[in-house]
Amino acid sequence: MLALTVQGTGKATVVLDGLHVRVVGKNAPLAWNDYATGIGCGGGVETKSFAVALDAGRPVTTPKAGQRDFPYKVSESDPEVF
Question: Which of 39, 69, 74, 77 sits at a 20 to 30 Å CA gap from 31?
Answer without folding.
Answer: 39
